[in-house]
Specification:
The chain is mainly alpha-helical. It contains 9 helices and no strands. This is Lysine transporter LysE.
Length: about 200
């Protein structure tokens, strides 16, 4: 891939990453509830999910998903169900209490990585987005090398952006203020996630 093409691809991936959506709501909530480690793990899991989708698209498999209505619907409704589950979980969440044990943080890290990955991987809009985007860069002879470049570009940019978001939210008075408002944030993010789940279905 030529440098100019890669720069164009990276620029579009940056715009896609910073646009608000269920991913941002999840990163904010997990950072507030579980601290920096939980937020960073969620960000890395999300970036990995985005990267996998990018690789699938680059190799032409996402086209199969969009052209097979049953498979596409399974992914779409699976994503909506997962967003709805996260929304209900946020609405029912109780104010966070201090948990200092290391194993608790490790469990939260794994949970955050899983949630971040699933929010990305069960989002069929990613398939549509990458098909529209990669149609400008993918050719008939695109193989694993260029597919890997696209995967690392899209997934890496996404992960870096959300890691930065988690790090900013977990520093100084910002996190203290967010923790004080965690009950409100849970309710708002829960409603946002439920609304996005409904939007996916409709």
């Amino acid at each position: 891939m030529e440098l100019t093409s890669w720069l164009a691809l990276a620029a579009i991936c940056v715009m896609g990453a910073i646009s608000p959506g269920p991913s941002l709501a999840l990163i904010i909530r997990n950072t507030v509830q579980g601290g920096q480690g939980h937020g960073v793990a969620t960000a890395l899991g999300h970036g990995f999910g985005v990267g996998i989708y990018a690789l699938i698209t680059a190799l032409g498999l996402a086209i199969l998903i969009t052209q097979t209505p049953l498979l596409f619907d399974v992914i779409r409704y699976g994503g909506a169900a997962f967003l709805a589950w996260l929304g209900v979980k946020a609405l029912l969440a109780k104010p966070a209490k201090g948990e200092a044990r290391e194993e608790v943080h490790q469990l939260r890290g794994r949970q955050g990585a899983f949630e971040g990955f699933m929010v990305a991987f069960l989002n069929p809009q990613l398939a549509v987005f990458f098909i529209a985007l990669f149609s400008q860069f993918v050719h008939a002879d695109t193989g694993w090398r260029e597919g890997g470049i696209m995967m690392l570009t899209a997934g890496g940019i996404d992960a870096v952006w959300y890691v930065l978001v988690a790090l900013v939210l977990s520093r100084g008075p910002v996190l203290a203020w967010l923790k004080a408002k965690s009950f409100v944030i849970d309710k708002v993010s829960g409603l946002v996630l439920l609304g996005l789940a409904l939007k996916v279905v409709l």
